[in-house]
Design a protein that fits this description.
7 strands, globular, single chain, 60% strand, mainly beta
Length: 73
Amino acid sequence: MAVVYVNRHVRYVQVLLSDEGSLLHCLTWETDEGVVFDVHALDDSSFSPKYDRIYVPFDQKTMTLHGNTYILY
């Protein structure tokens, strides 16, 4: 399981590196009830891009999805 740290206050595309070495691109924005972030990743085995849109309420700081744990700070 990879851990990815995401700065939820940045409003431009962040290039992130998971602790397992995966390169991710992430865009975040706030809604009235929480933070939404789009994560784009490239699968090392097939070179096919993967995309997830993740919603995290303001009172929650972590989200686990597809084997990655995203930690918002």
